[in-house]
Amino acid sequence: VVLLPKLDELIVAASAPTPIALTTTDMTAARWAWDKREAAGAGTGTLPRIGWTFRPLIGVRGRAGVAGVEVDPRGGLDEERLVGAMLDQGAVALERAELAAATVENEALRRSDKLRAALLNSISHDLRTPLSTVMGAATTLIDYNATLKPETRADLLVSIREEAERLNRYVGDLLDMTRLEGGALTTRTEWTDVRDVLAGAIRRVERRLGRRSAVRDFPAELSAAPLDQSLLEQAVVNILENAIEYSPDGLPIEVAVYEDRAHVVISIEDEGPGIPKADIERVFERFRRLEEPSDRSPKDRKGAGLGLSIAKGFVEAMGGRIAAASPIHGARGTRILISLRKAPPPPPVEGL
What we know:
By secondary structure, this protein is of the alpha+beta class. It has helices spanning about 25-35, 75-145, 150-180, 195-205, 230-245, 290, 305-315; strands at about 1-5, 10-15, 40, 50-60, 65-70, 190, 215, 225, 250-260, 265-270, 320-325, 335-340. It has three domains: about 1-105, GAF domain (Beta-Lactamase, 2-Layer Sandwich), CATH 3.30.450; about 120-180, Orthogonal Bundle (Helix Hairpins); about 190-340, Histidine kinase-like ATPase, C-terminal domain (Heat Shock Protein 90). Strand 4 (about 50-60) and strand 5 form a beta hairpin. It starts with a strand and ends in an 11-residue tail after the last strand.
């Protein structure tokens, strides 16, 4: 049996060949071996009448645990030496495992601190910048409304609306990520025509397209798919907004849908700078933009980079899959694919 320290107690971590229930006296001997760094129990001067011998597991850096060996009257000196050698190796293995776990924990804490700092910086920028614009435009309208030209007044109102929408998107991203992380996301599945969902998503981003065009490639007929319409629409909106962010003005963004035997597949393509192949596997990670801005990111781009991660969470919550491919047009362009299960074919009718 192997006991490991946890807080101020020794806890049974493993036993063989069957689970072991140690008595209070056994645990007292194990504690003695841990505290005094010497063997206790059978064959020693401390609690020799119990059926176990407990030895401290001492590695290179210090104590790692305690091992208990049940007494076998048939054992001899050779068996004793073998057990001692095995326990020494076990102590080193435990110590290495502890060091590895500590390294992983420290790295996780380092990344967590880095992300926390980056997220706070992002929130500060992504909230303060649009708020400053809204406050400036509103102040100008209030203080100088009577002297402003109609076109100037209209421009200020448009700026207020655009920055308010930007704030709304950002807060929405934070709330969506909170739902995903907290396990509070629930799906409402119904048979859906994906073309309707895509059309709705395109309408939601039309004002942000600028001189870009959303090119639709929808088939005349398409099988229904069991999905949550609101989650899919939001996932597609996030992908489209990402495409708009990185696509040069005047170039098309293609939204297509097709089906194979088992799935309905959505394809969204842009003609932006693309994603380096080394980064393609990480494009859906949370806060990717904050940690390591890529060549795809404009140098003045700020933000948490939550959109694609949220899209992935929503798609997977519906039982679908999402993937990215880049480059797709020479050295440029990115394609995001969403694969969703479609309605099963109807059973054959008997007698036909």
